[in-house]
Amino acid sequence: MTMRASGTFDVTILPLFAAIIGDDAPLARMSIEKQFHGDLEGTSKGEMLSSGSPATGSAGYVAIEKVTGTLQGREGTFALQHSATMNRGVPSLSVTVIPDSGTGGLAGLSGSVDIIVENKKHSYTFDYSLGEAHG
Questions:
Q1: CA atoms within 13 A on the CB side of 75
Q2: What's 99's domain CATH number?
Q3: Which structural domain range is residue 116 located in?
Q4: pLDDT > 80? residue 132
Q5: Distance CA 68, CA 127 (A)
Q6: Domain assignment of residue 52, yes or no
Q7: Where would you tag: which of 20, 34, 69, 71 has the fewest CB atoms within 10 A of its CB?
Q8: Domains of the chain: total
Q9: What does the pLDDT look like over 54-91, one tens digit per residue?
Q10: From CA 131, how far away is CA 20, in angstroms rounded?
Q11: Is 78 within 8 Å of 98 (Cβ atoms)?
Q12: Is 41 contained in some domain?
């Protein structure tokens, strides 16, 4: 059975040391820290790798973040994988739970997250299932 969680989150993104540096560096590396509110109460930490062309409005990023918290009463951890592109200003984003990453009350978690940004405020909807844990 698929369930839906929703709420808001605060995010802090900071630059990290990258192996490739300089004005023409093709990649930027950043840390991500989030504070979730709503049906998911908790925190996450992760890393992002991005590249883009500000002049054309095109870019892409990949990221992995580990979430620790309580999802509609179930406590545990899980990992999210992000893959995003911006094609001349048109965004495409996929954020999915990494299979078998759930622990504790979130073992067997699967699903995907939609991130909404309006007026510089972040919110989410999280469609998920809690299937049988494998191990």
A1: 0
A2: 2.40.350.10
A3: 3-16+25-127
A4: no
A5: 17
A6: yes
A7: 20
A8: 1
A9: 788 899 999 999 999 999 999 999 999 999 999 998 99
A10: 41
A11: yes
A12: yes
